[in-house]
Amino acid sequence: MIHTALSELAQSLKAELVGDDAQCLDLSIDTRTLTPGQLFVALTGPNFDGHDYVVTALEKGAVGAMVSRLQAGIKGTQLLVSDTCIALGRAGAFNRQRFDGCVIGITGSSGKTSTREMISAICSESGETLASEGNLNNNLGVPVMLGRIDGGHQYVVIEMGTNQPGDIDYVAKLAAPDVALVTNASESHLLGLRSLAGVVAEKGVIYDSLSSDGTAILNRDDPAYGDWLVRVAREPGRKTLSFSLTHSVADCYASDIRSLDDGMHFILHVAGEASSVHLNFWGKHQVANACAAAAVAQAVELPLAMIVRGLEKAEPYQRRGQRFHGLHDALIIDESYNANPSSTQAAMDVLGACHGIKILVLGDMLELGERAEIWHRAMGQYARNVGVNVLMTYGEQAELSQKFWRGAGAHFTDKTLLIENLLPRLGSEVVVLVKGSMSMGMNEVVQACARPEKESV
Q1: Fewer CB within 10 Å, N side or C side of the chain?
Q2: DSSP conformational letter for 319
Q3: Looking at residues 211-223, what average pLDDT do you find?
């Protein structure tokens, strides 16, 4: 946090400070990762109560604990609030409000994290940059990240996720971005958002939290482009920049796109200038993400040479397209972090462009509501169209993909049996793509394919 005393924070939150004052470095909601100098926030939920861990937090060096019930008989400072979850958000917003650098907000149905990594790499070429880590992109994670802003940062890149209406509105208001980006909108999280129209509306909320002179980054290729443009225009002073995979009408776009063994190669066009780029990611969707990142960089007035340097240093984040040589020298593409229809099709496009025997291991794509059957059938057909040789599926819904695949492979109700069937197929001429929603645990398949020490490509 930016030079914050607990007494100062207590005053902002209208909290009661019980105990000694101290400087607070940032916020923690998990004693397992807590480090000395942090303020522990005792969150509560249906199956946990953070108040049970206040003593542990203090023993690990927390400067105090934010609680909704004073804990008797402990030695340490407590900030008493009525609701620790609400106070966590307000604490993050309090720190953000004192930051005079640039805050960049990102959301979208897919590509958020990869684009975040690209933007962070570019901004880091210019100055100290803080970017969201892991899955800290929800109502708890965003305030934690905002609490990590300190006086040395020049850029802050905040990823924002959602699975129900109102999620983006809450976190975007906390972050108050100077630049806001929606990577795309597709059918995902339909249990909460109901329809593609619901996704478009929910993602577009991020633009509402822009300052009156902020910049909205718009995807010219997305069918929702016009809807988002109208939304941004509600505040006349806001600026817009667009990006596209190929269309030159956009402010940032790509041409001469080539997929090679070492990544994507293309020409990046920004504000009338052009430069070749080698991207350490695979797939045209990642080139689109790079164009989005370049548009963000244009919004903060970074030169093309700096944009290119940053893009060429960016790397895929964990379980989002990472590649390594596994057992028997098979090439493993790890897309096991999560899955929705658009991201799964994009991943299959990447697999289809590879050489050799192509094996797709597909787990259920969850939270698709009434559209689940339609989309899982479509994945089987899509796998056939892109040239997959073997399809191995796991999960109740993925069985539909197998039925509509009608090719080599099998469906498994036991992940262990799937792995036992997969491993003998591995060889130097084999490429394996593993994809599925997070709760399907498809990373277990990836781990089973790995050598004791993975060799990155």
Answers
A1: C
A2: T
A3: 95
Contacts of residue 226, defined as CB under 8 A and 6 or more positions apart, other chains included, come to none
| Three-state SS at 379 | helix
C-alpha to C-alpha distance for 172 and 84, rounded to whole angstroms: 19
- For the chain, list the domains and their CATH numbers: 4-82 (3.40.1390.10), 99-313 (3.40.1190.10), 322-456 (3.90.190.20)
In a 13 Å sphere around the CA of 186, the CA atoms on its Cβ side amount to 17
Instruction: Please check whether residue 292 is in contact with residue 243, taking contact to mean a CB–CB distance below 8 angstroms.
Output: yes
Task: Give the span between the Cα atoms of 171 and 138, in whole angstroms.
Answer: 7
Q: What are phi and psi of 171, to 5 degrees?
A: -75, -30
Instruction: Give the pTM.
Output: 0.93
Residues 229 and 214: their CA atoms lie apart, in Å, by 14
**How many other CB atoms sit within 10 Å of the CB of residue 407?**
12
What is the distance between the alpha carbons of residues 383 and 387, in angstroms, rounded to a whole number?
6
CA distance 347 to 437: 13
- DSSP, collapsed to helix, strand or coil, labels residue 157 as strand
Give residue-wise pLDDT tens across range 13-33: 999 999 999 999 999 999 999
Q: What is the pLDDT of residues 404-434, one digit of tens each?
A: 998 999 999 999 999 999 999 999 999 999 9
- For the record, the structure tokens of 32 come out as 């397992």
User: What's the CA gap between 29 and 213, in Å, rounded?
Assistant: 34
**Going by DSSP bridges, is the β-strand pair 357-363/39-41 parallel, antiparallel, or unpaired?**
unpaired
User: Rounded to an integer, what distance in angstroms lies between the CA atom of residue 36 and that of residue 363?
Assistant: 40
Sign of torsion over alpha carbons 119, 124, 127, 128 = positive
Burial degree of 286 (CB within 10 A; 0-12, 13-18, 19+): buried
Supply the angle between the helices 6-13 and 84-97 in degrees, to the nearest 10: 110
If you search the block for the tokens 């797939």, which residue do you land on?
A: 283
What are the structure tokens assigned to 148, written together? 């990590």
405-to-62, 401, 411, 438 alpha-carbon distances in Å: 54, 6, 11, 23
